[in-house]
Amino acid sequence: MKFSTVATAAASLLATASAHGGVGVYTIGTTAYQGWQPYNSASGQSSIQRQYASFNPLMIPDLTTVNIRCNNAGILGTGLNAAVAAGATIKTKWTQWTHRPAAIMIYMAKCPSAGCNNWDGAGKVWFKIAHQGLVSGTQNAGKWAGDQITDTLEWVVTIPASLAAGEYLIRHELLALHQANNPQFYPECAQLTVSGSGTASPPSSALVSFPGAYSASDPGVNFNIDSDAAKTATTYPIPGPAVWNGSGSTSPTDPEPSVAPPAAPTTLVTSAVAAPTTPPVTCTPVAKFGQCGGKTYSGCTVCATGSTCKANGDYYSQCV
């Protein structure tokens, strides 16, 4: 009985670990940019996404550390930016995700004139361009934004059409709320070069820093999904600032997620290039039933059209 109990607990821990994930691919138009592969060697990896070590969550003690910014201790870029026009969409695809409920928050930060690659994102420079938490029903039993990612692994966000051109960091963050008063934060950052004729920048009142944007006492952080209040409440106080609406003000409302996907990707960017003028490097999508991931895997992680990369333990993922 004791062995059985230990085995059951170990299986439970493994299932919990496999439920985590991170953004694996960013798609802009017909170009797909490979995300960081945390369980592979950092040697030789180049991505628009900042390096991070694992799919493990950040918890309340991490809110006061630099790790909460981009899920690392201030590691800089690898030399790759993604080109995107103001007003265009970015579709993100997570490697895996099963946590319910969850909120999503998306931030940007304008990089210095020298660019993003050697800048760590410090300071009161981050502004929120989208967020969504509880969509309908009660906190305890309703529909949440994270359900869409659990079901499809995808989310689409629009870059503010009025945003001034330049280099920016974009920060996608999932906030898993399944543990009472102990939420799990999953942030990742990537580098963008925004083009267009826009001239708008968010006001100082819309800017926050990481760490600093969240506190353990925030109602959306100090939150118990199983409380009596959660069984009747029909709104959820999303942590952080209001969404910047592209003008001189912020919007307190929760925008609906964009559901119109960009065109199917034709190019996968997997190594460092001088964006946006140098042609991207490509890899051939993996055929159905082929390996597409795992701790020791170093090949292409995008599946051919019609199949999706699914994890089967830490060391093997397959296109199915």
From TrEMBL:
UniProt-listed PROSITE patterns: CBM1_1, CBM1_2
Region (Disordered): 241-264
Gene Ontology biological process terms from the UniProt entry: cellulose catabolic process
SUPFAM superfamilies linked to this entry: Cellulose-binding domain
The CBM1 domain, residue ranges: 284-320
Signal sequence residues: 1-19
Broadest EC class assigned to this enzyme: oxidoreductase
GO molecular function, one term: metal ion binding
Protein known as: AA9 family lytic polysaccharide monooxygenase
